[in-house]
Structure formats: C-alpha cells, structure tokens
Amino acid sequence: MRTSVVVCLIAGGAALQAQAPTAPVVNPRGVVNAFTQQPAPSPVSPGGIIWINGINLGPAAGWKAEPGTPLPTSALDPAIEVRIGQRAIPLYSITPSRIVAQVPVDTPLGVTQIVVRRGEQQSAPARFTVVPPSPSIAAEGGFGPAGAASGKTLTLRVAGLGQTDPPTAPGALPAAGDPIAPRTAVRAAVGGMNAPVSARLSLDVPGEFQVTLELPPTASQGDVVTLLAANNAGNRVTFQSLSAPKIEYLPLPEGAANLRALTASDLRPGYFVLNGPRGEDSCYPAILVDFDNRKAESLSGCHTAANAQIQTPFTPSNDGNAIAALVGPAEGDAATGISSKVAILQPAAEPRAVELSAKASNVGSAPGGNFNAVMPGTPIRLALIDPDTGEVTEAAPGGGVLPGGGGGAVNINNLQVDLGDGVKELASVPVGLGQNQQAIIAVDSLETVTKAKFGIINAQGEVLQAVSFPAGWLPLLAPTQAAPVQGGGGGAPGGGGVPGGGGVPGGGGIPGGGGIPGGGGIPGGGAAVANRFRAAVQFDAPTRQYYVLARAADKSRDGFLRFPLAAGQEPQVLAFSEGRFAASCTVQLRTFSLELARRLAVPTSPTPETLIRTACGASSFVTLDFNTRQITETSLPGQGQFNITGNAANDVNDYVYGTNTDPAQQGRSDTLYVFDGVTSSAFRLDLPPEVSSFANVNAFPAMGILYAQATARTVGDAGIVLFDLENASARLLPTPSGFVSVQPMTIFPATRKLIARGTRTEPAATQILIYDLVSGDLQIIPNPEGVAFTGAVPNQPAQPGQPPLQQQPALQNINAKSNAVTVVGFDAQRRPVGVLLIRAH
Known about the structure:
β58 (671-676) and β59 form a beta hairpin. The chain is globular and about 75 Å long. The longest helix has 13 residues, at 6-18. By secondary structure, it is mostly beta strands. The chain contains two helices and 71 strands. Strands 3, 6, 7, 10, 11 and 12 form a six-stranded mixed beta sheet that branches. A five-stranded antiparallel beta sheet has the order 1-59-58-57-56, with no helix packed on it.
C-alpha cells in the first residue's frame, strides 16, 4: 500500500492535463531501451533503439516506416519529430502512447535530453543515458529465450554495437551483398563456453545487427547467452529454455571434511574448485568439480598465495570460464613475489601451467576473460594471461594518482595543495575537469576548519585558480567522532542494510566527489587517505559549475556553494531554509545523483549533527536542480524519519529509499520511505498485512524492485517482501508450508528468478527455493538423499565451559551470470558429503 502519494500523483496528472490536448507529453521515466526494456534511466548505446512513452505522441491511426527502407526523421502532417538537442532522429513507428526511434550513432556519451515535436507543439524534455557500445539483445521483456536456432547456430537481433566499418548513417540500410560489421570487437559464450561469433548490419531493419553464434558442443536448453562488445556485457538472455529446474548431484571424495572456500567459474555452471585450509607447505589442498565430466576429484599440484590469511588462492576470470592460481610452494613474499608459474583450470581443457618472466605476488582477473599477474620490482610489471592460449604479454601498470583525472596533480604522500593564506589541506576528491585540470577543496585544518578555498590545478600541481569561500561559510565535512551508543538516534547499527555490503550501488556518494567513488580505497593512499576526503562535491559538466555542500560557520544554516569555473566570477550561496541541515552523522556525507531530473538530492534533518551515529536519521530531502540552480525541499510523509547509515538508505533508478528502524526490533523495519527523484515527491510503502517487519533490503534495477526478508513473529518466517517502486506497491512471496523461515539471496536477470534458502526445523534442514517473479510460482528444490543442509549450516553454540566452535563457512555460489546455484551439501552431522548444481528454468 502506498501512503501520502495520492496528492503528488493527482497534482502531476493535473499538470499533464493542463497542457493543450494535442501537445505531446513524454513520461519523465518514459525513454527506455527498446531491446533490454530496463526501467529508466535506461542505458542505451549509440545507434541503439529506444521507446519513448507518453501521451498524445501521435494520431490514433499511428504510423510505421516502410519495411526495408531507410528511416525518416519526420513523419505525418503536422510533422512529428523526436529531437536530441536540435537534431531530429530516425523514426520506426508512432502511436499515441509510444514512439520507436534510433539514437544516432554519433550521439555523445552521457545523460542525453530528448523532446517530441508535433507540429508547433513540443513536449517537456525527458532524459536517458548514452553509454559506450554494449549489446542490447532482443527478447520478450528483455530477458529469457532469445534468437532463432538453426542447426548448430543461433542468430540474435542486437542493437547498440556502435558505429560500423565502413560507417553507416543513422537510419540507413546497407546495400545488398555488402556485409557491414561493427567496429567494436564482439565475443560470445553460451553456457559459459566460447562461441565463435559474427555480426553484420541487418539488410532489413535499420540500426539492427544480425549476430550469429556457433553453438558449442556443450550447448543445452536454458544456457545463458553472454554477448560482449569491447568487454561490455549485454542483457543476459538464454538459449531456448528449461521447463523446470535442472538438478544434478555429485558425492565428494574421501577427505573432504575441512573445506573453507568455493571458487566457481564466472560463466560455466558446474565448474568450480573447493579448497581446504592452507598447509605448512603454503599449499591449499583442493578438489576440482566438473559436472560436465561427472567428476569431483582431488586437484593435483600445489596452489598458493602470498597472503597466508586468505581462504583461497583461486580466482575466476571475469566474464570467462577459467580459474587460476599461483603454483606453489611459495618462495618469497608479497614484496618479492612467490611464484613464476600460474595454473589455469578451464572446462573442456587440460590444466595449463603458464610461465612468467619473474615471480608474481598475486593473480587476478583482467578484462576480456583474461588474468593478470602482478610482478613486484622497479617498476612493477603486469603480466596479462590469455587462458585459452596461455599467451603472456607484459606491461607496466597504470595508476599511482588519485582518481579524478589529470594525473600527477596531487602529492599522494602529504595530500597538500597550497592555495594561499595557509589553506593547503586537501578535503575533497580531486575532480577531473578535462584539459588536464582538476578541481579541489582545501582547508586550513582538517580538525578545526576556519578557512577554505576552491581551487583548480593542472597536471603538474600548479594552482591555476584559487577562490575563497563566501564570508561565513565553510565546507561541511563528515564527522570523525562517534556519538555515545545511547545516542544512536533510533536504530540498530546498519539499520536494515545489506549484510556484507560495501559502498552504495548506483549512487550514495557524489560521482567524482562526495566520498570515494565505488567505496574503494585510493591508489597509493589507503584508508587514511580516504578518511581525509570528507567534503561532498559535485561537478556538473554540462553547465561547467562546481558545487560543494557547506555549513555556515556559526552552524545556523546549510546550503550549496556554487563555484563557476570561469575566472573572475563570484561564488553563489544556495542556502537551505532555516531548520534544515544536511544529515551529517555518517562517516561519509550521503548525497544522491539523480540522472533523469539532473538534480542532486541531500537527505536532511532538523539539527546540525557533528557526531557519527549508528543510525543517522533524516526527515526530508533537499534537491538542487542543475539547470535552474533552484533548491526544492520535500518532507517525508507523516513526519517520518529514516536511517541513512550505510546501505540502510540507497537509490535505484532515481528512487531514493530508506527504512525506519526501531531499536527494539534489532535492525528490522516496518516502513519503507521512498523519494522520487524525478517528481521530488516522497511516499511511504506499507507492508502487506501478514508482515510486521523486514530487513536486509536489496535492489534489482532491471525490474525496478526491492526485496527483503519479511518477518511476522520470528526473523524470515513471513517470506520475502517485494517493493515495486514504479507501481508503488508491496507484495509478499510467502514462506512455503513446512518451512520456518526464508532468506533471499539474489535474482537471476536472465530468467527473473529469485533464489532463496528455506529453513526447516523438524528435522533440521535447509533447501533452495526458486520464486518466479513473473508468474509467482515457487519451486522447492529437493535435497539429495543424505543431504540435510545446502550451502551453509546453522551455527552451533558452544557448550558451557567449552571454547567457541569453529563455524563452517558458507560453501556456495549463487551466480546471476550463469543462472545457476552451486552449493555444497552437508549431512545431518554437518559434514560435507556432496555438491549440488541447480540450473534455474
């Protein structure tokens, strides 16, 4: 149930109706990739095909381009056009509610604005994101079975592969008998196995490519089709489909009692390594499991790692099927390297040992399904390893500077840039401005700030411009001191965050500033460096304006400061209203970049916090419109307040969501608050009546939904609650009969299946559950004979007077890329006895 949103919707509807009846109206979230159908902001590549959804877009009779002819950029009378900037783009079809059009292949990357013109009338602009060439595969709903199989080939309809060679004009068709291929290299896999691929521009439909794959001998129904252009993966689809989950089981060999890790192939289901703890000889005993060959056997040889504390030396290739590890025993340490040999394990191939020119300290994944090995020394070298051929190429690794572009602009060791007047302590992530320039914020002291400046520096670290902050204003820095525990502000630590979560997917820090992009450390800097960058900044490239979140020196007001890049222009204060302050009780200031509306959202509270709280409460939002430079303030409905600490608050598809957290419920919540970044409205989603609380919220952007573990009386006993943000609804996937709780794990994009683990108590057991998010059906996967627990076993409490028991780590791989679940099966005595492979249907 959606609460406190009706007024917003009515108001929005009234605004639409107020326009002239024939004026085209594009839904602000209405521009969608026609092939992937991912909700807005929908990524589309140059040359891709889009749907433009709205009302009054065309006449009731509609219009379609003539088959087999180039696409026009204008149709009907009065003329209907779709424009990106001042440029009309090719049109496929027009109806009152949808226009299908092609994005010109030379459209610049980034957020793009689009309008529909109908005669002399024009819609308000809508936006979508243009990304580098990335395959968009045609399939019903953008997922599931795709293409047409014939013999040993599969032909796909694909868009978004970018410019061709020779070049093709937007909306044009190639000449018959003149095959035109994309410039971007394309590779493919079916069921994780390499599939030779060819791509050519369609002779019949402008903008479409016919991509033909040679099916590998292992191809079977339900295999995931992976298509990549310049290592950018397209939407996951399948080769035909399974009518039901496919379940296979292999017993483990003798001596498999003490297993510590499972490393699975990234794309090939049923191919993985299990290993035990590191031995005194530095070797990790391992078992290679290969369901294709029905084998689970001890892996010969020694596999090792420089870090003796890690659970496994093995690593999978990204978007490939291989697994690699350094060959031991280790000789040396991380500083000198430990092995000059890398073991490559690959399905349908014999193990391969690759020789390096020097000892490596570690091996990891690299683009293109390859591996890289780091060889210490001066300089450090990287060895790029092709797992298919064993070929090794060497290069010096890049990096060594802070993110933001420009290279060499900042002294990483002391993190100081002298902007004059004693202002030299760097307080923000350097933001690349182009032309080897970076924008920074510096202060006189990170402990007690009394002076601050905005600066522009070049690649040599020379100061090109330094502008003092307006009188009475200073950058708002995230706090470093924690509040007493009793001052937690209404919530348990984490407040409904995702276990093990790190960073904020899709937002939650300002891109290019406002925290560390991606939540990771800084090359050469580490955590101490990351903790320095406590200012929240944003560079708006289209308007060439730089913004920083600021607080008045007397703590009476908060606001944004706008610094124009052009020399001689004064900064501007964009103050919040009295009594609204940025919620500043988290280790990094929380801000959310809203692509569709070109706005920046900041959660706010009624007090100027200066301490870190386990639950940092926000009761409203302030948004900055980059186009108008206006501030909008929106309160949560019903005087609501939600926790913005960590992943308790997040954003997906320009919806910012957060949970209220009752400390009495130990991290569980009973209300989900949502801020719609497009309409600047806030609403509340109430729980289904069977649910009293929920926890561990996860997002699935491809469907615009959130999912969380639902509780009636005990944790997870109600099942899984789904929040549909676009339709403002909540529904329950109930715990099936015979189970006491359900724990959601992930959603498979290729089939829209939600994978969960169900728990029984009589007898004690766990099983894999598969919920179909389209049909609502549930599949309960039966455990093989002798298997009580799948993937993980419940923790056992220590007996009184006895030392704590060593807990068995989870041994599972829930792989959204391969549409498969791989788990170790444990018997009733919690001993590993076999491995289970489940391919979702």
